[in-house]
Structure formats: structure tokens, C-alpha cells
Amino acid sequence: MKNKSGLLTVGLIVLISLLISGFSSNKPVKTPERDHLFNTGWKFIRESVAGAEKPEYDDSKWRSVDLPHDWSIEDLPNQTPGTIIGPFDKSSKGTTMTGFTIGGTGWYRKKFITSKEQQDKLVTIYFDGVYMNSDVWLNGHHLGNHPYGYTPFSFDLTPWLKPVGQENVLAVRVRNEGRNARWYSGSGIYRHVWLITTDRIHIDQWGVYITTPEVSENAATVKVKSEIDNEGITQSNINLVTSIISPDGKAVSKTKKKLIIEANASQTDEQSITLAKPALWSTETPKLYIVVTEIKQGRNTIDRIESTIGIRSIHVDATTGLTINGKSVLLKGGCVHHDNGPLGAASFDRAEERKIEILKANGFNAIRTSHNPPSIQFLDACDRLGMLVIDEAFDAWEKPKMPDDYHLYFKEWWKKDLEAMILRDRNHPSVIIWSIGNEVAERADTTGFRITRQLADAIRHLDPTRPVTEAFCRYWEPVNIGKKWSDTAPGFAMLDIGGYNYMMSEYESDHEQFPGRVMAGLESYPEKALENWDMVEKHPYIIGDFVWTAFDYMGEASLGNSTYNKLKKPIRTIGWPWYNAWCGDIDIIGNKKPQSYYRDVVWHRSPIAMAVHEPFPEGMLDNPSTWGWPNELQSWSWPGAEGDTLMVRVFSRAPIIRLKLNGQVIGEQKIEEGTITALFNVPYQPGTLEAFNVENGKETNGVELKTTGTPGSIRLTADRTIINADRNDLSYIMVEIVDENGQVVPTANIPVQFTISGAGEIAAVGNADPTDVSSFQKPERETFRGKCLVIIRAGDQPGTIILKATADGLSGGQINVRVK
């Protein structure tokens, strides 16, 4: 079966064929149609029905859906009295953990005709991810069960396919039941599905493994290991052809080897290819090559796959830290859950790509996939855009965190699921570290040490080119009674990189005891960004820091809250109607939050930033949770606060900050020692608030905040106004309430209605309010701090999409998006 990391469009396959045709004659060569995206034309019901696996079952009243699909983000069909129409319910079994969303059981069915091209071929169905506990049937035959919701799996359909021209029925039951997740998981077939057709002689699933053991600017060695299966009854003579296409589309290498493959057997071939003056892959220059692997018999190509690779070297040690292509790299990292905000868990290609674009634009160069393998499209985007990845396998091993989580399946399934992750993802240049687990309960006992060894050894067998890590945090009662931090030593000893969650205080003392240990902060608090980054810059054995989290996500609701009370006492969990964790640098619709501006100064991306705390309730203190941030904004618009004293924080690495209000100097402050913060108390009056760095007595860099006017109109801005006629393509329309000068009015929380016409549909609407539990599907949304979002999904035909937005008392907005 095909290595999914190399999935390409038919158009690109044709282009590659033309580019390498110079190596062969001008006669036409048969190229097989191998992979068919199997996303359209499904029937769905959100119920536990009997007999739906049988071909004769009547599904005519079921909904029609296209994949990827997440039913937990959709409006609930039957609402509990007193709840708001939307996907949320106060009676949810997952409560705050899953953001008050509902799982349950769902069924999918798809009918398809066996084609002439599939006659005498092997036909496989491939799922990149189904959450969770999926069972699959073809024509009433049970093909198997797959419990884990985050790993790919496939089934051979060949024995039960109908003859050519007859109809087949594929049925999938998905059970997301009980309390099985600590965050929003989504429900259903939320990633892509492919129907794969191959000859009896074919390249094995994930059977092309590519490494670059020697890399320099002058030359690189590319090793290509190909596993060929012969599921026929006779021996076969084949030619294995391997071609490499450069980032600029040129064929730079081609090898051809004759092989004899015995009947009902597999054979592995390994080739070592040298490329001169390679274009190296890095975060700054993510240059990608394509390796084309073909099996030929005579003039015919009977199998062909394309694998996208990057030529790069990675190395870690406690003396030089992390180097890529011999250059030091510090990981400016963030943890990222897999949901796509208003779209839920559905892994649309554009949604995954946009997430990486936003994080890259805000200074991140690394992501930890918390706490599970991501989609293919996510890693493809990281490859293209130059984002480094820690690819993580599990959140639980044999001991539970939730009653119905993966611990129920670990003993039977860990090896299969770990292999699926490694084999699928090991050709991605973006993946630089494997993680075997996150804060598992048994990490400091004999069971945990046994499992650590098993998992680490299994990874090194499948891919010895990347280091292995695991995330350790402090021990908590009662699970780890009597344990202390030093008990982590045997576990760390089995890893290549020690993962520290919120344990910055142990870095230096651990280094004294274990000077060869490489460390990384795999989770850290937003307000500790400076302290953690100072450690990374100071010590080469600490290779990076990953904040919890880079992006807001659904579930773990209110984790990053900030509440007011008379005592300095943060509250970790608030409950309904919070659905969003609210601890991200980026909010759930893709905009910067206050901590992101602070991080810009920490990471030397910006020389100065300023934030203003909202007026304090009388006699109250602001108490951010340990994952939270003070209730401040980049705003100088506080109607009703005239004359009140507001707290202003300025972030800078300059020695002195000068503050001006409406052109008049109102104060200077030295940056507090050991911080990048200057604190001012300013009586509020509308106008312009400015902060300047003062260095050697002179004003240098500055930042300003202006008071906005009253809401006047709606502005619509698309991330892309031209998209493809592809159900996986999206356009994100930011909706902003602006004043007469075009400034966003941060106090405008206004209901906006939407109408759409043309060659697309509204896929979702949303805002950044972590307590707004209204529908993501209805064509209306209230703005939060002056903004909300509409996500448009393309149809499968070209044309124009027209989106209009209206609100009482405002000039409406309109935007056109062309679908080509």
C-alpha cells in the first residue's frame, strides 16, 4: 500500500511523469491509478441503530455528508431543557474535559461500484483517523475493529468485493462513548479516507523508507529502502525504478534495478544515492524533493508512489544542543491539540495548513502534537512551511487518566499503533523527535520503566534516525504516593531527550548530576515564558521550550481563566458555560492574544509591546490560573472608565520606558530587574497612549494604542479570495466591527447575520469567546472584542461565492471569493 506521506494530486503525478520522461523512450507508459480519495457521497446517522452493517439496510433517510466529518461539533438533535442550541450540553459525560460536547454512536455507509480497473486487483480501504472504536464492514463482512482514534488503519476489501459493475456497501460504526478524553476529541470519520487499488505485485503500505545519513552543502546521501510484496501465486521478474525530483522540478537522479520476487513473499531493496549541491531543508528554507518509486514489468508501470522528503541532518547532545544541517536551532515551541476550532476535529487540508501558517507568523518554529499523532495534512503543511515537530504517540499507557481512555487497549494495541505512527510519518522532514508519552501515571515504577524500554526500542528499530523523548512532570498524590523527582532518573536514562513539563526548577541541578542529559521544556506556563526562554538561551543542553498552549483548543474548559476575588486565589476550573481552554497564545479563530505580544519580546521578535488591564472591580484582585494571563488587552478604549486609574504594562528589553498620553510625557519607569516589564498606573482619558524605549537618553522603538470611535460598519477580510473547487479547500473570512477610521472597536459585541450564495457554503462560524456556547453552524454570530469568523467551504464546481454580513445599525459588508 502507498506511503501516505507522499500523497499527491493526479496533476502533480502527471507533471512528475513528464519531468522524468527524458530518461525513457517516447512511447506511452502505463501508469496505474492507485489512490482515490474516498470522501464524498457518504450517508450518516447519529444514532445506535441495529443492522446497519447489512447491505440491504435502508439508509435513504440518513443525512448525506462529505468527509472529513465531526458530528460532535454539530448542533445537538435533542437538546436538554435549559441548554443553548448548539453542540454543547451541561449533562455531557466529558463535562469540562471535552468542553461539554457529546459523543455517542454514529454510523456511516457508502455505496460504490466495482470498476473494471479493480478486476483482479487488490483493493484496500485506508482511514487516516476515526474517533474512536470503529468497526468496518464490506457487504456485510466484518473487516475488523480499530480502537485508537488517532492512528491510521486499513483493511483488505478484495475477498468480499462484488463482481465488476455490481454495487458494494461499506459500513462504518463509530463509538465515542464514556469518558475517554481529557480534551475535545471530536467524533466520527474526521480525517481522510482513500480507496487504494494495486497489482498483486506492489509496494508495501508505508513500504518506502527514506533517510539522509550524510548531508552537507556540497553533497548528500539519500538512502531509499523499498519493500515489495508479491501476493500472486507465481514468481515475478520486475524492474524497480527510483527517481528523485528536485525542488525546482528537475529530475536529478534515476536508478533501475532488476529483482526477482518469489510468490507470496516480500523483498526489501536498499539503494544509496548521492546528490551534488543539494537544496537543504530547514525552517527558513523548507526545500522539498520528491522520490518516485516504480515497479515496472516490460514497458508497463504496475505500481508507483511518490514520497515527499527534505534533505537535512539532525543531531542532539548536551554540549552543542540541537543542530540541523550543522547549525544550532533553539526550539520556539508550542503544544497543539488537533481540533480546528469552529470546524471541530475535522482535518480539512486548508484548516491544517492555516494553523501552521499562523503559528509560523507568530514566531513558533516547533510544535508538539499533544498528545497523539496528527493528520497527514498537518505534517504535510509542516514540511512545506518549515515547522519542526515532536510527534507524540500516547497520553496514557496501562494506567488510566479517564475511565474509558486508551489504557483499556494499550496492552493489545500499543505496538500496532506505534508502528502506524512511525511508519506513516518517518519520511517527513518536519518530524525531528518522537515522543512515547505524556505524564503517564506509571512513569516512575517498574511497570513504567518496562514500557518505556519497549516503546523506545520499538521506535529505534523502525527509525533509528531521530531521538526519543517522553514528558515528565512532578508526581501527584495519590497515584504516585511517596515518589520524588529523583525517581525519574531510570526513565530519563532510556531516552535521548528528557522531556520536562513545568519543571524548569530542576534543569540546572539535574545537569550537575547527569551532565550528558539533553533536556527540553515540553510544557510551560505562559507567564513563565521569559524565565524558561532565558534557560534555553543560557544552557546548550536545554534545546527548547514548548508553551501550553500555542493555540486555544476546545476542552479542558477554563484552564487558562483569570477571575476576580478578594484573595490571591486562582481557580482552575469554572465550569459551564466555558467550553474553551483559553490558555493559547493564539485564540480559537486565529488571532493574537495578549501573551503572544509578550512572547514577541521574549523571543526578540519585537523591541516593545504594551497591554492595558481592564478596570478592576472595586476591592477585587485579578487571579490568573497557572495557565492563564491577566485580563489585559492591546487597547486604549475603555468607555465608562474616564478618570479611573488603569494598570499599563510595557514589555521591553530596553533599560527605561517612557509613556506618553496624548503627546504628553506622563512617566518613565525602569524595567524591573529580572523581567522585561515596566508597570504604570495611568488615569484613563480617551486619545493616544504611547510607550517608547529609552536608550542612552534617546527614544528608540515605540508602540501606540488609540481610542476607537463608535461602531460604524462591518469589514470582511478573507485569508484567500481565490480557492480551488475542492471540498477540502476553505476560505477564512474575518469579520470586524470598525469605526469611521477603519479601527476595530474592541468593545463591540454585536450579533451579525450572514447570507451566502454561489459556489460554496458556510462550513462554520465562531468567535474567540471561551464561554459562547452557541451554534457553529447557524449563519449568525456575535462578535467578541469586535471580531468573529466565517469559514467558507468550496463546492466541487468553479464559480463565485458571495458572502454578505449585516447587523442592526451598521453598514453591511460583502466579499466575493472565486472558486477555480
Q: What separation lies between the terminal Cα atoms?
A: 32 Å
Strand order of the largest sheet: 21-22-23-24-25-26-27-28
| Topology, number of strands | 47
* Number of H/I helices: 9
- Low-confidence blocks of residues: 1-29
Subunit organisation of the chains: single chain
Helical percentage: 10-25%
From the structure above, extract its key features.
9 helices; 820 residues; six-stranded antiparallel beta sheet; Immunoglobulin-like; disordered N terminus; mainly beta; TIM Barrel; globular
How is the topology of this model organized?
Layout: H1 10-20, E1 35-37, E2 42-45, E3 63-65, E4 104-113, E5 122-127, E6 134-138, E7 141-146, E8 153-156, E9 167-176, E10 193-198, E11 201-215, E12 219-230, E13 236-245, E14 251-261, E15 265-276, E16 289-297, E17 300-309, E18 314-317, E19 321-324, E20 327-328, E21 331-336, H2 349-361, E22 366-369, H3 376-385, E23 388-392, H4 410-425, E24 431-438, H5 446-462, E25 468-472, H6 489-493, E26 497-501, H7 507-513, E27 519-524, H8 529-538, E28 542-547, E29 562-565, H9 594-602, E30 608-613, E31 621-624, E32 632-633, E33 645-652, E34 656-661, E35 664-670, E36 677-683, E37 688-695, E38 698-706, E39 713-718, E40 722-723, E41 730-738, E42 751-758, E43 760-766, E44 780-782, E45 787-794, E46 799-806, E47 813-819
Parallel strand pairs: 21-22, 21-28, 22-23, 23-24, 24-25, 25-26, 26-27, 27-28, 40-47
Antiparallel strand pairs: 1-10, 2-3, 2-4, 4-9, 5-8, 5-10, 6-7, 6-9, 11-12, 12-15, 13-14, 13-16, 16-17, 18-19, 19-20, 29-31, 30-32, 30-33, 33-36, 34-35, 34-37, 37-38, 39-41, 41-45, 42-44, 42-46, 43-45, 46-47
Helix pairs in contact: 2-3, 4-5
